[in-house]
Design brief:
The protein is mainly α. It has one domain (2-110). Helices cover 72% and strands 0% of the residues. It is globular, with a radius of gyration of 14 Å. The relative contact order is 0.13.
Length: 120
């Protein structure tokens, strides 16, 4: 079932663009009735599509909300989305995306450990 949903997201993104899908998916993932598995799968899809998205703010908002979730698996998926955004878009774009967020949400994000790649 989850694979069918991901394929539907791919088809939808192909038809209307990743940004429109990301905006709706971010809203859906924020619903209290969204399951942990759905949130993790949705955030994973957003991380894979981060390279094609133009609107970084929507993706940063989704990642930040995930980092504030009570589920550790969702927090890990949110952190992975941040890492994908930093890798594909760069830290400056991610910092711009953090500005419209509430100070409490920015504080939550600041305290999440990120797996930054070290240069040798």
């Amino acid at each position: 079932m989850r694979d069918a949903c991901v394929k539907s997201l791919d088809a939808w993104a192909g038809a209307v663009g990743v940004d429109k899908v990301a905006a709706h998916l971010t809203t859906a993932l924020a619903q209290p009735k969204a399951s942990e598995a759905a949130k993790v799968a949705g955030l994973g899809w957003l991380a894979e599509e981060a390279v094609r998205a133009a609107d970084v703010v929507v993706l940063v908002k989704a990642a930040a909300a995930a980092c504030a979730d009570k589920s550790s698996k969702v927090k890990v998926a949110g952190t992975a989305l941040f890492e994908a955004l930093i890798q594909h878009r760069g830290s400056p774009d991610v910092h711009v995306g953090l500005k419209p967020l509430s100070s409490a949400l920015r504080k939550t994000v600041r305290h999440r450990p990120m797996n930054r790649q070290r240069e040798v």
